[in-house]
Amino acid sequence: MTSKVYNKQIGGRHYMDMVIQPSEFINKNKLQFAEGNAIKYICRHAHKGEVQDLEKAKHYIDMIIERDYGPRENWVEGYNKWKELSMKGVINNKIKVGDLKKLLK
Predict the structure, then answer these.
(1) Average of pLDDT values for 40-68?
(2) Alpha helix positions (H), 50-91
(3) If pLDDT is split at 50, 70 and 90, which confidence band does 86 have?
(4) What region does 32 belong to: left with phi over 0, alpha with psi -120 to 50, or beta?
(5) 15, 9 Cβ separation under 8 angstroms
(6) Tens digit of pLDDT for each residue in 18-33?
(7) How many CB atoms lie within 10 A of CB 65?
């Protein structure tokens, strides 16, 4: 059952016409800020902000990826890292696992 607080919306009706409002879904699932905003913008894009809302959702999804999985490296950075580790013997199993932490610094 929906709480009374979700029976009103300040400024428009773009959430009121939904089966479940994004804010209710977000709160009941205890989602973090970025996840909540991504869901909000995806849900409302057709009724309010159109492409700009989808761009905002993508922006929040990028924030989540960086926050939870670290910055992504491009293939050149990955290759250079592999080449450096290879020259140090890591790729060819010439190094002890305990020494790997020192080399990665």
Answers:
(1) 95
(2) 50-69, 75-87
(3) confident
(4) beta
(5) yes
(6) 899 999 999 999 999 9
(7) 13
Instruction: Please state, in angstroms and rounded to a whole number, the distance separating the CA atoms of residues 51 and 42.
Output: 10
pTM above 0.90, yes or no: no
The full set of domain ranges for the chain reads: 4-69
Say what the pLDDT of residue 39 is.
97
- Tokens 């059952």 correspond to 1
Reference 29, options 43, 41, 39; nearest CA is: 39
- Provide the 8-state DSSP code for 71: P
**How far lies 44's CA from each of 49, 51, 59, 92, 101, in Å?**
7, 10, 15, 52, 46
Q: What does the block give as tokens for 96?
A: 């002890």
